[in-house]
Amino acid sequence: MTDLATAPLAPPDTPERRAAQAAVRELRARIARLDENGLDLIFREARSHYAWSSRPVPDDLLRRLYEILRMGPTSGNGNPGRFVFVRSPEAKARLVPCLNPRNVAKVESAPVTAIVAYDPEFWRHLPFLHPHKDTRDKFVDNPVRARDDALLNGTLQGAYLLIAARALGLDTGPMSGFSRAKVDEAFFAGTSWRTNFLCNLGYADERAIFQRLPRFPFEEACRLA
């Protein structure tokens, strides 16, 4: 166990730090882990969906979804993930020409299609997001590192979106099968945002579900080192 007196980069003892530590202790006392139903809802019994009911997804629920996913960790608290929730007919009409033909019906029938994007210029916001140490110098003259860091952590935030959506009772349908360049042109022209992947959100039509595909067992995918 790390000696708290010698913990690396330990910040000064402040009321804010003590409050943060108390909040973690309170959470652990309140709930130590998800129950089996929660694990089934998010992972074990959850499915990717391809057909959707007409039940709408309220804007307030999308706001709540973001409020949850934004709390997932990213490197240096960079938060490079950006999200466009496409739900109006006008926005869908801009997105559909960017899709491979096999994905058109999936997007047209979904109440919401999230464009999961990232911002390679996320580092410009680090004085707000990482105020105790200015780390912009790592990226300001290194666009390759900035892009790679943004893509890595933006993808991580896209995974948080899937998990948070399932936790809120939404069904999800993450997708490739589209032109990133066309989506960038249609939605992000004149900005630094770049498209990563798409994810349909809503309430699924279960009649389109087929049998679950295989997954690797622990022995084939993992090593104990």
From TrEMBL:
<comment type="similarity">
    <text>Belongs to the nitroreductase family. HadB/RutE subfamily.</text>
</comment>
<dbReference type="InterPro" id="IPR000415">
    <property type="entry name" value="Nitroreductase-like"/>
</dbReference>
<dbReference type="InterPro" id="IPR029479">
    <property type="entry name" value="Nitroreductase"/>
</dbReference>
<keyword id="KW-0520">NAD</keyword>
<keyword id="KW-0285">Flavoprotein</keyword>
<keyword id="KW-0560">Oxidoreductase</keyword>
<dbReference type="InterPro" id="IPR023936">
    <property type="entry name" value="RutE-like"/>
</dbReference>
<dbReference type="InterPro" id="IPR050461">
    <property type="entry name" value="Nitroreductase_HadB/RutE"/>
</dbReference>
<feature type="domain" description="Nitroreductase">
    <location>
        <begin position="45"/>
        <end position="203"/>
    </location>
</feature>
<dbReference type="GO" id="GO:0016491">
    <property type="term" value="F:oxidoreductase activity"/>
</dbReference>
<protein>
    <recommendedName>
        <fullName>Putative NADH dehydrogenase/NAD(P)H nitroreductase E4O86_17430</fullName>
        <ecNumber>1.-.-.-</ecNumber>
    </recommendedName>
</protein>
<keyword id="KW-0288">FMN</keyword>
<dbReference type="Pfam" id="PF00881">
    <property type="entry name" value="Nitroreductase"/>
</dbReference>
<keyword id="KW-0521">NADP</keyword>
